[in-house]
Amino acid sequence: MTAATIAPSRLHHWVRTGLAALAIGAFGAFGTPAQARGPDGIADVAEKVIDAVVNISTSQNVEAKGGGSNTMPQLPPGSPFEEFFDDFFKNRRGPGGGSKGGENTPPRKTNSLGSGFIIDTAGVVVTNNHVIADADEIHVILNDGTKIKADLVGVDKKTDLAVLKIKPPKPLVAVKFGDSDKLRLGDWVVAIGNPFSLGGTVTAGIVSAKNRDISSGPYDSYIQTDASINRGNSGGPLFNLDGDVIGVNTLIISPSGGSIGIGFAVPSKTVVGVVDQLRQFGELRRGWLGVRIQSVTDEIAESLNIKPARGALVAGVDDKGPAKPAGIEPGDVVVKFDGKDVKDPKDLSRVVADTAVGKEVDVIIIRKGQEQTKKVTLGRLQDPEKVQAAVKTDEPAPEKLVTQKALGLDLATLSKDLRTRYKIKESVKGVVVTSVDAGSDAAEKRLSAGDVIVEVAQEAVSSGADIQKRVDQLKKDGKKSVLLLVSNADGELRFVALSVQ
């Protein structure tokens, strides 16, 4: 029975019991005040900023394909319905009928809606890149319904942010950024956006987590909130109770597509830097150190005498990058960059990207158990061109190999024949792996035939005997693991720690 059909007597009873329930909910069994359910300032925040929050409408021309509403269903040959549908679709299309496969169907226009917010009364709008990606037309819809055509200033796919520009027909309301670093777990936040195309909608919640990495990109550091965020909220602002933008609502985790209380916002600290560069250059100019890095596992930390395990392990150094002339080498562990602690590789990636191109910074590394400081002048990160050259080569005739067994590996001195067999570049030096024992620690660490061991315990090796000698010495020294510097056929390096027991 719905509320509209409740009889008067039943309604009177329902109202009385409902009021009793409300009283319990407001004060609780122990007299908890109603304010404990949430702060009073949410309404003030919403009233202050609502006119700065906009809807983003996009349209895109999409080539029509078979299977649309004007396309004849695919029927088995000889089906009794084939003639009926054939006549039906021909009549719908008029004389000539068009093709059954919809080849003459014109392109159709698709529309989508998202959210955004005004940061400058001159008409600068921030939203998500995925809201406007591939759009042929973009319109900004103000809170009063005014629709304005927008121009794209720039996008950054890695942080999923975009900046738009509109010509305002009247004075606009703008909001300013706050400091997301000052957020604490449990702080109240307010999300405003366009969920499910309903228009300006206000929801509130708390900060559930900070610096959340959900592996959606190289610079993940999201604010997690339980404020309701749904489809259409993307690109909308997340406010603190001062009415400052402390995040851009971007992602949700949901099995159904609706809010289950797990939403993510790009923190304002990241947004400010990206937006400033997009407005100034129309693109992102990120800092570049010129190293390949990997995590410092407990085994690697033990091998490098680092306690506790921390930092970013340098697995390779670009010959043309800023790190090489500064004296940074493979095997170094970066623990501090420009005065900021580096706990893991993600920390280093984010802080380098956020640092200005051309700035000289101090990089503190640990090398063979000792801290050293290197001065590096950052370069500019370029999007690498992915060039894949597929070269077909004839399989060489089988050869008799002289191999040495160590660490669950069959090892051989790198020869011309082995280079040809495994397509190993001439620049790669070391001892080649010809097979890996199933079930060994080496197999678990994904070593495979064709990998080349370049160093053992940070000393270069050129034969299987060199490796065995180093392993024997480490066992005598009571070491539990050995650190290998391993190269693939293309010369890309990584560190692998293997048990010597």
What is the topology?
Blueprint: H1 8-27, H2 42-49, E1 53-62, H3 82-93, E2 108-120, E3 124-127, H4 129-132, E4 137-141, E5 147-149, E6 151-156, E7 161-165, E8 188-193, E9 201-212, E10 222-225, E11 237-239, E12 245-252, E13 263-267, H5 268-281, E14 287-288, E15 291-295, H6 298-303, E16 312-317, E17 333-337, E18 340-341, H7 345-354, E19 360-367, E20 370-377, E21 379-380, E22 404-406, E23 409-413, H8 416-422, E24 431-436, H9 441-444, E25 452-456, E26 459-460, H10 464-476, E27 481-487, E28 493-499
Antiparallel strand pairs: 1-2, 1-4, 2-3, 3-7, 4-5, 6-7, 8-9, 8-11, 9-10, 10-13, 11-12, 12-13, 14-21, 15-16, 16-17, 17-18, 17-19, 19-20, 22-23, 23-24, 24-25, 25-26, 25-27, 27-28
General form = elongated
In which range does the helix fraction lie?
Answer: 10-25%
Sheet/helix structural class? alpha+beta
Return the average pLDDT rounded to an integer. Answer: 81
Taken as a percent bin, the fraction of beta residues is: 25-35%
